[in-house]
Design goal:
By secondary structure, the chain is an alpha/beta fold. The protein has helices at residues 20-28, 43-53, 59-79, 94-102, 116-129, 150-153, 173-187, 203-209, 216-232, 291-300; strands at 33-34, 83-88, 108-113, 138-139, 158-163, 192-198, 241-248, 253-260, 264-268, 271-275, 280-287, 303-310, 316-323. It is built from 10 helices and 13 strands. The structure holds N,N,N-trimethyl-histidine.
Length: 327
């Protein structure tokens, strides 16, 4: 187990059962073979992702930042005072900073991240910049159950789960609904979810965002194999794979793959796997949404859309969701 990761090894009876090794094995036994996107995020992968966010082709971050810059005052007014802001997959947080600056007397900020280095760096920077704000980091894989610090559980706290970046798009529909349901449970009846989603748009723009000219996304994708080798003692040869990211119109998502450029084999937990030349390993879904898709997903998770903020081109949206009022 690498020190950079904080996910626990044992099965804790969560929705995704099994140890990390068992989860990887289960994915590799599927067709197509797949690994979960959490494998991108070791220290090198997190650093690569930061660089992707400023790549000219990757419009997502810039667009969401511009929405947040423009509409944070409205978001803060809609969220109300004394919010405890909880952010699963907190990353490095420029958007978070803009939101925290706008919030009225926020009670606490709770970043939740799987990469300990990333989490601690974010925590240090935020504590420097917001000396009056309690920053209470939780090192956890947010796709599994995690415990919240005490202040966040206070009866009067207005808990807001902040989930920007269109990270929801990594999950298939049923898993996305489960995740939104858990966010609703964390928020409680008086709370809310502030969700960032990437919108359906021109295919060329979408594909370019996942095939940047500097090769950052390719390096990010291949890095998952190095992470696996280090943490699970696997023997992937990154040189034998090529990055591929394509728009799948009937699923409304970008799929990232690692394509075997020759016939190859590898061993995971003592089990041997083979790949034919041209066969691919699925590493990520990045779902793109219409506003109606998001409303449907939210509804299925017991949440209603209260507000929507978008950029002028409707490339990206930030939505305020609140627990649905029972009819
Ligand atoms: C962090 C999941 C939103 O899907 O766009 C960036 C990750 N993958 N480039 C995305 C990612 C390839 C990103 N999310």
């Amino acid at each position: 187990m690498n020190a950079s990761s904080c996910a626990r090894e044992r099965d804790r009876g969560d929705r995704l059962p099994g140890t990390r090794m068992e989860r990887v094995l289960a994915g590799l036994r599927e067709w197509p073979k797949r690994i979960e996107p959490i494998w991108f995020y070791d220290p090198r992968g997190s650093a690569l992702f930061e660089r992707i966010c400023t790549a000219p082709e990757y419009y997502l971050t810039r667009t969401e930042v511009s929405i947040t810059r423009a509409d944070a005052p409205e978001m803060a007014a809609a969220l109300g005072p004394r919010v405890v802001l909880i952010e699963p997959g907190s990353g490095a947080g420029l958007k978070t900073r803009l939101l925290l600056e706008a919030l009225h007397a926020p009670r606490a900020y709770v970043p939740v991240d799987i990469s300990r280095e990333q989490l601690m760096a974010t925590t240090r920077r935020l504590r420097d910049d917001f000396p009056l704000l309690p920053v209470l980091p939780v090192c956890a894989d947010f796709t599994e159950a995690f415990a919240l610090p005490k202040v966040a559980l206070h009866e009067e706290a207005r808990r807001v789960v902040y989930f920007p970046g269109s990270t929801l798009g990594n999950f298939r529909r049923s898993a996305a609904i489960d995740l939104l349901r858990r966010m609703r449970a964390i928020a409680g009846t008086g709370g809310a979810v502030l969700l960032g989603v990437d919108r359906v748009k021109n295919e060329a723009i979408l594909e370019r965002a996942y095939n940047d000219s500097e090769g950052l996304t390719a390096a990010f994708n291949l890095n998952a194999l190095l992470h696996l080798n280090r943490e699970l003692g696997t023997d992937f040869e990154p040189a034998a794979f090529a990055h591929r990211a394509t728009w799948v119109p009937d699923q409304s998502r970008i799929e990232m793959h690692l394509v075997a450029n020759r016939r190859l084999g590898f061993v995971v937990g003592g089990e041997r796997f083979e790949m034919a030349r041209g066969e691919h390993l699925l590493t990520e879904y990045s779902q793109k949404y219409t506003l109606r898709d998001v409303a449907d997903l939210a509804r299925s998770a017991g949440l209603d859309v209260r507000r929507t903020w978008s950029d002028p081109q409707d490339w990206f949206s930030v939505l305020l969701l609140e627990p649905a009022v029972p009819e």
